[in-house]
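Troubleshooting log. The previous structure file for this entry was overwritten by mistake, so regenerating from the original sequence record. Sequence copied from the archived sheet and checked twice against the printout by T.R.
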Amino acid sequence: MKIIIGLGNPTEKYQGTRHNVGFSAIYNISDKFDIKVDTKKHKALIGKGIIGGEKVILAMPMTYMNLSGESVRELVDYYKCDPDDIIVIYDDISLDVGKLRIRTKGSAGGHNGIKNIIAHLGTQEFTRIKIGVGEKPKQMDLADYVLGRFSEAERPVIREGVDRACKAVEMIISNGPDKAMNEFN
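Regenerated output below.
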């Protein structure tokens, strides 16, 4: 079993923001594989289904970004999964809009949601798919930038990035993260 976790902030206020591309990816995966994500459990909205012959849980923590680890810990404990059975999808300001970077371990790189997950799991060794949201303008506050929305020109690019993240999840499940890294990085 794999647990696929998209990071973001709950409520309509944050829909479509840069910080919520993880949620966007879960919606995309949900649509593609007909997995309803509508059950409130483990401080998250979850759905159960099958991707590539493997049982999966899709999850969107409802704890707000900076406390994502609380939900992830509950999911891992309840489903008796190892950290290497999770795939976390989230925004990355060091990548151009729509670009992907897949890793199987590493630091939080300044991302508070990932910092909290690492703290709760006690390890940095879990698969992650970073979706680029672009570098913040120098004069702009980081929180304002990541909680802002994509420009008209960026919207089709980020949609393509989210689609590619969905394909990357499928490849990770079917062929492993190394193959996905070779294909998408």
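The first helix runs from residue 21 to 33. Archived copy saved in two places this time.
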